[in-house]
Batch of 3 targets.
Target 1
Amino acid sequence: MRTIFIFLLLSVTLTSFSDDLFPGSPEVIFNENRANLDSLKIKSQNVSVIFWNVENLYDPYDDTTKLDDEFTAGGAKHWSYSKFSVKLNHVAKTLLAAGGWAAPVIVGLCEVENRYVLNKLIYETPLKPWRYKFIHHESPDLRGVDAAMLYRPSAFKVLFSRSIAIRYPFDTVSQTREILMVKGLLFGCDTLTLFINHWPSRRGGYLGSQPRRNYVASVLRRLVDSIQDKQPETNILIMGDFNDEPENESLSKILIACNDTVPFHDTTLYNLMGIRNKTHPEGTLKYRDQWSTFDQFVVSGVLMKGLSGIRAGVRNVRIFRSSFLLEDDNSYFGEKLNRTYSGPKYHGGFSDHLPVILEIHIAKP
């Protein structure tokens, strides 16, 4: 009995030092979704990358340079610091739950107002123990919402970042969100080049707004071509809220992101959500009774093959459909998104989009 008791005590003690309680010490890992830097102990594992449109993550203060008045105490939304705090904790809860209550290595976000809200998110919510850093560039978007990226510096070493300006040649007055480009080293295996997007909305109708998304797609396509012309073996990961379906013109014809893997080429782009939709047509947002998949991951063939030690394929992508992100739809049946606002009325929910998750497989030599 004494021997058994000692064994159990030792087991509990080791578990106490897991990454759950001490995220700054990743040497002992008990969840395959968390990455371990000690390649002598674990040869391969999966790490989470998440993209989420968080629906208007505004602070409650007026920025006189942006059209953010409705998200102030005196504005139409009656946005307050307490509502802002609830929103921050909702975002943190969702990211941790989507990662299996672990911490995703990379998080792409859109509809983020500024660096202030990002600092609040990573330092004053349950995300704090994971020691996230973020990348954010202020864009000329009139509403003041941008794309941003959170990352764990112990797992992802940033080598380079920049924002890609969008200037429509057919409309020199309108301004929109920029594309966030980040290049980094993932767990010392190989570099990963990421593009985080929030393409123009469908305001004004699909056909009326289509040229704007098509143009952004052409800018991104030229960027990808310039990278692959110099380094065809580059691991490319594109994520975002594209405000288009995978089969729409902007993605399938201009970005040329394929919704099938046959034929397969290293430098071809593949829309993992488009391929997945053929067998799992779930959707990431709902309008009336119609679900759409605007939130997507697109990867290069090189990343799908995993020749450099990191790999991501169709089986590695999914939509995070947690019960707390959804509620009963009494008007159109089934479920709908548990949103922060339902029209002008504060609803206290999470977002009008579901997060999408990509598991990247790390294979140590």
Target 2
Amino acid sequence: MAKDLQTVIDGERMSARQWIAVAITICLNALDGFDVLSSAFAGPGIKKEWNLGPDGLGAVLSMELIGMGVGSLVLGGMADKYGRRPTILTCLVLMGIGMFGATTAHSPETLSAWRVLTGLGIGGMLAATNAVVFELSNLKWRSFALALMVIGYPLGAFFGGLVAAELLKTHDWRSVFMFGAIATTVFFPLVLLFVPETPAWLGQKRPAGALEKINRTLTAFRHSAIPALPPLNPQAVGAGFADIFKGPFRRATLVLSVGYAAHMMTFYFILKMVPAILSDPQFAGQNFSRSEGAGVLAYANLGGAIGGACFGWFMHRFGVKKATIGALVLSVLGVAHFGLGQTSLQGWTLAVIFAGLFTNSAVVGFYAAFAAAYPTQVKATGTGFALSVGRGGAALSPILAGLLFQSQLGLMNVALVMAMGSLLALVLLMFLPVKDPDPKEWGQAD
């Protein structure tokens, strides 16, 4: 009898049915990418309608990030307790209601409330989908599948940004949120049909009918059914939130969560502030339109997707730690280069592609570490905690950038300050174990 159900999946080939489930998680992450940045695409219109200053707009843009922090922690734990699949469905409901609600907002306060609700769903979704991809992929293809899942985020922002740019030519900023609401609703039945509960979770939690559910999933994956449930891992019994701060998990939890938060401050400076910067002649040199600003931000996410896709090879070649440190070095340089400013729309586009390529590559590295650092019983909890702390850095980003701009520091100085987040993450990452670059050694205990 196999030691656990993850081992069963690890040893089998990846079937078409597994790849379909992975593809849906990629789309869910793409949906998250668009939903998070929908307020950035809509930002210039929001600023104009309610006459907001840089600090006021920065506060509005931070609201879904605050919700994401809470959602990652609370709903991440829900994914370990109640299952990956029901958590994803719950998150889709929250996201859909929040996006529809944003179309009805008539003040910064009401819009902020709807964005917090949307963020709750997004935060839980990120923790749950990361666990799903890890647990439904075999050992051979796991790193590749995780990299694909992570680059879904910038791909969603890229293609969603192109749609937003077209919508903003003829409609107001509320149309961006309506598009996101419709897209979110479409994915609910797709998850019901094609994303099963993971055998690894069922084997650990053992709800009623666990064996039958596991075998139904294994059959759909064209794998052999198991005659009985494998023995429980004693360490999994009663596992909870406190376990991510014990034994071999403590250092990974602290270093990864704080490092991720620091990098998120830099990452979201580009993703949240680009349209507002380009719409202000003081920084952009000319007054680009809302549609042009959204288009440039879309290409920042294209750069992120390209970087994330290529980064999987670097992780395989050099290990997660070394590859991520390299990406963080280039992230600092990319954001600093963005701060130099440009004289044309093409120049701005190339600058944000360069910055997005390396900032998102580092995000891929962090996600690979999250998924591999924890065993099944606390995988979503550990990932959710790291994401929750990370959202603190993400929420701080537009607020801090807005305050720095309000203080008349200038784009170059603001960009240098914001790039320090990636530099801090780089330093912290050096404290991770170095004896083996394979993240499976970073605390995997089951």
Target 3
Amino acid sequence: MKKLVSLLLTGALSFGLLAGCGGGTGSANTPAGNSETPGTENTASLEGTTIKVGASPAPHAEILEVAKGLLAEQGITLDIVEFNDYIQPNTAVENEELDANYFQHITYMNEFNESDGTHLVSAAEIHYEPFGLYAGKTASLDELADGAQIAVPNDATNEGRALLLLQQEGLITLKEGAGLTATKADIAENPKNLEIVELEASQLPVRLGDVDMAVINGNYAIDAGLKVADALAVEASDGEAAQAYVNVLAVKEGHENDPAIQALVAALKSDEVKAFMEETYEGAVVPMF
């Protein structure tokens, strides 16, 4: 009997040792932080991994290019797929054709989930792009004539944001409580009888010369070569907008803690990416880390 117990204990000990060794190899689905040397085993498990991310051309794809180099040093391939609209990159993540996307602010993502039944979540808050009011046919706010046309984005969250900027500059007054979801129907006072022209966000820079002024999303302004320093008015970076419109790395719910996604988050929040944002965009892209 003693010999049998001894054999059983020996077998159990051997099994435990084997199980312990097996845990060291890891996989892409192993939670980060379980390795004895932080990052070492988890990085090794991600060698050969490809992360496919959808992004708008500027600044998101440009920022991802910096992260791509950092990930390559770890043996991780970042496949950047560029989009010029706000719908396809979200449906592609929902359908798991993409691992993540990086193009939108958190308010838009939440609204998209509600309207389209998607299950997207933020894996990380990365940066903020202040909206700017840019000159078209009229060069300054002082020259703005009665009945002038001001173009704004036509999607729900961004239109409200644009109208708040116009209110910030004293051009209109919105109904009390209209807030971030305001539309032009919520304009209570319009002393200059401004005509608010609703356009698809991507068309605003293209149509800038056709209207007196336009409130343009940061990414489309950058892509069109517009500088925030040249804007007639800019959102305050320490205001409500900075929190409501922080740009996020979006994934399908349940994947936010995947090791590959966390590796991408770490790269996007690196000192290298922060320096790139500050030096390249001169205030048009503000790091939130």
